């Protein structure tokens, strides 16, 4: 039996910062609920679903960007950091939503996008009108091109969505001029974080939202703000060695930013926090973002990236816990978000989470897709995730067992990745389809208050089978995915040994992941068994919950069970 621990905080749950245990629910505002009937989600829609979220039992909501944006990357291209996208509502709506969530005991996390702005941000517009070398240009990364007439990009970096990471501009005299860096879409110019003005600006932005009552931030591309000195070319050697650092990822300088931000958060009452979206190559590098004087959480992408496989998951869990323990941080388990193929499809098809760029990598062999098996595994995965030490992040629709929509008509795809990949990768729209609330397809399955909209009329069309997964259909079915999540989240609140703390592996055979958790005060024990192989006898103990109904005394394959032992 090996013992692993992430605890440095000893004491009752009510005494430790909420973010050490929290289950946070991610909302992609465009796709959650449409209150004004325009086929796009909005803040009033989200507010109308607060009772649903309360009943689900989550602790916090993370809302993907809700700021004014030309929507080239659905809000991750921000044109004004201190206002609300008019399609989504107003600042008053946001304030009302935050207050109502708080009244229900739910925290609210905003998504901050500090690596880049929209090209429509007033700073970038000013930079375009200002001459090379001007203070306005110095807020972004403008450089002269290479070649005789500056016609070649300043270095060989490629954009994450495909194509070169540099765009050449036309200067005021009408001639081709400098180039600017955009690690993502052309419309997403990177800020220059070597410029103190950028630091000051974001400090103002953070305080603006903290003053409005926001409990924390999800930091977009948290590993990208600092670029290597001199912007060196990516060499073949760096690309080939997957764990080597790219000159634009995970540079040491980003940590200075977070040490400063932590001081800002700590100057407010109520354990304000941030969670890093840091796609760092190893658990050790991910753990650097959550050192005691840095951020609260960092998404566990090693876990998200694992296949549905006993050894891969055990390795990801052990590696993460070991590294987080060294810095005293809680784990932040996650299987789904708005950037990756939904776990229902990944687990059924044997696919990993990150780094995909072809339909084959995203969806596998569609002809072989077994949605029922995917849902079974995703539910088993959820009970695994929610029993592990630390907190967890779930993505809207995960609690309904939604599969990926892999066949959105090509002319309806909106992810910038589709075009920038030269139409090779269909992109991330398949996990962003509006949530099915009702069985009837009226109002895009209840997504919209506008009942004249059919299932194809919301901003992304819904498939014919969408109603099978509707929240309404699952509401009163005891064994629905929705009710499994509700029971699991309720149990987390009730059982003091869940959430932050320690775990011990239990030896239960090659195809079973099993571990126990002990309440330090009472000595009461809890166990979680995940069966990846052939059916096994249900272990001795009092059953709390199972991800699929057990058959007699047998724990079927791809099933997780929670027990008092
Ligand atoms: C992050 C977001 C993703 C976005 C990108 C650029 O990875 O999660 O959706 O496209 O940053 O902002």
Can you describe this structure in just a few lines?
With 565 residues, the protein is α/β, with parallel strands linked by helices. 27% of the residues lie in helices and 15% in strands.
Please describe what this structure looks like:
This protein has helices at about 45-50, 50-55, 90-105, 120-130, 195-210, 235-240, 255-265, 285, 300-305, 310-325, 345-350, 360-365, 370-385, 415-420, 440-445, 470-475, 480-495, and strands at about 5, 25, 60-65, 105-110, 140-145, 165-170, 175-180, 215-220, 275, 295-300, 330-335, 390-395, 500-505, 510-520, 525-530, 535, 540-545, 555, 560-565. It has about 575 residues and is an alpha/beta fold. The chain folds into two domains: about 5-115 and about 190-475, TIM Barrel; about 120-180, Alpha-Beta Complex (Oligo-1,6-glucosidase, domain 2). The protein has an eight-stranded parallel sheet with strand order 10-9-8-4-3-2-12-11. A hairpin with a 5-residue loop joins strand 6 (about 165-170) and strand 7. Helix 11 (about 345-350) packs across helix 13 and helix 13 (about 370-385) packs parallel to helix 17 (about 480-495). The longest helix has 18 residues, at about 310-325. The radius of gyration is 23 Å and the shape is globular. The two termini are about 15 Å apart. Alpha-D-glucopyranose binds near residues 220 and 338.
> Hey, roughly how much beta strand do the residues contain?
5-15%
Shape-level CATH architecture of the largest domain: Alpha-Beta Barrel
What do the pLDDT scores average to?
95
CATH class identity of the largest domain: Alpha Beta
User: Largest beta sheet: what is the strand line-up?
Assistant: 10-9-8-4-3-2-12-11
């Amino acid at each position: 039996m090996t013992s692993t621990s992430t605890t440095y905080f000893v004491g009752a749950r009510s005494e430790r910062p909420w973010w050490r245990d929290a289950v946070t629910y991610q909302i992609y505002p465009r796709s959650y609920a449409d209150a004004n009937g325009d086929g796009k989600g909005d803040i009033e829609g989200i507010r109308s679903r607060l009772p649903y979220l309360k009943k689900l039992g989550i602790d916090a909501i993370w809302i993907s960007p809700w700021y004014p944006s030309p929507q080239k990357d659905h809000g991750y291209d921000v044109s004004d950091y201190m206002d609300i996208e008019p399609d989504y509502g107003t600042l008053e709506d946001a304030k009302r939503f935050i207050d109502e969530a708080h009244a229900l005991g739910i925290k609210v996390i905003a998504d901050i996008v500090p690596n880049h702005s929209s090209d429509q941000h007033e700073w970038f517009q000013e930079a375009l009108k200002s001459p090379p070398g001007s203070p306005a240009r110095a807020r972004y990364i403008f450089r002269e091109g290479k070649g005789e007439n500056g016609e070649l990009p300043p270095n060989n970096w490629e954009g994450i969505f495909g194509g070169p990471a540099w765009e050449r501009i036309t200067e005021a005299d009408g001639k081709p001029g400098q180039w600017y860096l955009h690690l993502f879409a052309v419309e997403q110019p990177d800020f220059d974080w070597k410029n103190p003005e950028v630091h000051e600006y974001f400090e103002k932005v953070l305080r603006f939202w903290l003053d409005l009552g926001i409990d924390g931030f999800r930091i977009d591309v948290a590993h990208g703000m600092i670029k290597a000195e001199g912007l060196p070319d990516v060499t073949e050697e760096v690309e080939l060695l997957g764990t080597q650092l790219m000159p634009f990822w995970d540079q040491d300088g980003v940590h200075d930013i977070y040490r400063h931000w932590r001081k800002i958060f700590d100057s407010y009452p109520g354990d304000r926090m941030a969670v890093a979206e840091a796609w760092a190559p190893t658990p050790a590098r991910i753990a650097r973002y959550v050192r005691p004087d840095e951020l609260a959480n960092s998404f566990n992408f090693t876990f998200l990236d694992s296949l549905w496989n006993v050894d891969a998951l055990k390795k990801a869990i052990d590696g993460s816990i070991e590294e987080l323990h060294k810095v005293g941080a809680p784990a932040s388990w996650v299987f789904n978000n708005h950037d990756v193929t939904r776990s229902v499809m990944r687990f059924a098809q044997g696919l990993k989470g990150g780094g995909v760029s072809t339909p084959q990598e995203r969806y596998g062999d569609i002809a072989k897709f077994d949605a029922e098996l995917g849902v079974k595994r995703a539910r088993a995965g959820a009970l695994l995730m929610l029993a592990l030490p630390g907190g967890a992040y779930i993505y809207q629709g995960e609690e309904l067992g939604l599969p990926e929509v892999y066949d959105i008509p090509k002319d309806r795809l909106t992810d910038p990745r589709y075009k920038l990949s030269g139409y090779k990768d269909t992109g991330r729209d398949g996990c962003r389809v509006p949530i099915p609330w009702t069985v009837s397809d009226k109002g895009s399955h209840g997504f919209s208050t506008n009942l004249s909209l059919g299932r194809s009329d919301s901003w992304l069309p819904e498939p014919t089978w969408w109603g099978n997964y509707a929240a309404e259909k699952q509401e009163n079915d005891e064994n629905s995915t929705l009710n499994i999540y509700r029971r699991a989240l309720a149990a987390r609140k009730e059982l003091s040994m869940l959430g932050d703390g320690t775990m011990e592996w239990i030896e239960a055979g090659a195809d079973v992941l099993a571990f126990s958790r002990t309440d330090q005060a009472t000595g009461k024990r809890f166990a979680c068994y995940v069966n990846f192989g052939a059916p096994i006898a249900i272990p001795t103990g009092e059953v709390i919950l199972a991800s699929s109904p057990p058959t007699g005394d047998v724990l079927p394959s791809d099933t997780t069970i929670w027990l008092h032992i």
